[in-house]
Design brief:
Elements lengths: L14 E4 L5 H9 L2 E5 L5 H12 L4 E2 L1 H11 L5 H5 L6 H11 L4 H8 L3 H15 L4 H10 L6
Parallel strand pairs: 1-2, 2-3
Helix pairs in contact: 1-3, 5-7, 5-8, 6-7, 7-8
């Protein structure tokens, strides 16, 4: 039974699980515990190898059954981004935000966008406010989690 399954995440790796588990709660629990790929036990060896490579690259891979199960339960919930953003991030703020995620400093962002450093600071301040973040790092982390910054 899945309730008896203890999955311990490893510090340097991700877990690829071959199982017949298809209940959304169980899948969600497995993902939270460190499993990064859930495939059917009958998966083709090439699919298993692809899952290993995908998890190594930081991706999460689910079988069709697992993905459909999660979508059936969680698909109608409002998007986290819509709930948590007090205002929408503008297109210019998105440009600044993505460069911020690249690790660029204000001077480099201003040079790339052709705007002043003061304007860059203004955009970053606005982004932090809209996300409810107190640091640039926290803002980038939230942006990635909410799908505002592609990884």
């Amino acid at each position: 039974m899945i309730h008896d399954l203890l999955v311990q995440p490893t510090p340097d790796g991700a877990i690829v699980l071959l199982t017949e588990v298809s209940h959304a709660r169980s899948i969600s629990r497995l993902l939270r515990s460190g499993v990064r790929a859930i495939l059917s036990r009958e998966s083709d060896p090439d699919d298993v190898l692809s899952a290993i490579y995908a998890t190594y690259d930081g991706l999460v891979l689910l079988s069709t059954a697992a993905a459909e199960s999660l979508a059936a339960v969680y698909g109608d919930l409002p998007l986290e981004v819509e709930e948590e953003l007090s205002e929408e991030i503008t297109s210019r703020e998105t440009d600044v935000f993505r460069m911020l995620a690249e690790g660029l400093v204000n001077k480099d962002i201003s040079a790339r966008l052709g705007i002043s450093e003061h304007t860059v600071k203004f955009h970053i301040s606005s982004i932090l406010d809209k996300l409810g973040a107190s640091t640039r790092t926290e803002a980038v982390t939230l942006g990635i989690r909410r799908g505002l910054i592609p990884i």
